[in-house]
Amino acid sequence: QVPRAPSQPLAGSESRRFTNKHSKKALKASLTLGILLGMFFVAWLPFFVTNVAQAVCGCVPAGFFDVLTWLGYCNSTMNPIIYPLFMRDFKRAMGKFLPCCRRSAEPRPSAISLSMRNSNSAPRAAASLKNVL
Questions:
Q1: 104 in a domain, yes or no?
Q2: Is the residue at 116 inside a domain?
Q3: Which of 119, 116, 91, 122 is nearest to 106 (CA)?
Q4: Would the pTM count as exceeding 0.90?
């Protein structure tokens, strides 16, 4: 259940829509997090267990250790694929900056507009930026 402020009572159907919308978002976030953590553990847990076994008994072949290391690296390469599949905001951000993911109607942001957007300054910074250039 989603807590609500006592000063703002919601109507019954409006409250249900609000709760359903947020519970769907929470479910989707939980699913994404579960998939990411599950893949992380499947990829890296064998590496760490083998690493400890190698330190204790020295009985792990070097080739097997290399395979487990590359399994962990493969997990790191899967993250940029998993995030856009499950997160709409991440997909939009990728579309803004990668030419292969951009729609033809969306203009590419310039470096100056990105730096201005990321700095928490007012238009005064734009004037000083023009003077520098």
A1: no
A2: no
A3: 91
A4: no
